[in-house]
TrEMBL record:
A Gene Ontology biological process term: secondary metabolite biosynthetic process
A Pfam family per the record: AMP-binding
UniProt GO molecular function: phosphopantetheine binding
Name of the protein: AMP-dependent synthetase/ligase domain-containing protein
Superkingdom of source: Bacteria
Domain AMP-dependent synthetase/ligase: 5-89
InterPro entries to which the protein is assigned, alphabetical: AMP-dep_synth/lig_dom
One GO location term (cellular component): cytosol
Length: 89
């Protein structure tokens, strides 16, 4: 996971508008990327690693052990779906 706090020196030197830093999360089953998230200086104050929103041909869900959607902020397993997912997964 991206350690966003480690980017503080970058933001001190360049700011958070140009050039932009992008965090992209991905897994093998999707042939690299699943999500896209521009990172800002404000993100360096949050201990979590923001992964952003699904890219155009994918969707994602956080599910519990019974495959039910969990509430925001709760733990679960990330499940990927849609056209960008490789067959057999």
């Amino acid at each position: 996971a991206l350690d966003v706090a480690s980017l503080k020196p970058w933001f001190a030197r360049f700011g958070d508008q140009m050039p932009r830093l992008i965090n992209m999360y991905g897994i093998t089953e999707t042939t690299v990327h699943v999500t896209y998230r521009p990172i800002t200086l404000a993100d360096t104050h949050n201990p979590a690693s923001p992964i952003g929103e699904a890219i155009a041909d994918l969707s994602w869900y956080v599910l519990d052990a019974d495959f039910n959607t969990v509430a925001q902020g709760c733990s679960g397993e990330l499940h990927i779906g849609h056209a960008g997912l490789a067959r057999g997964y």
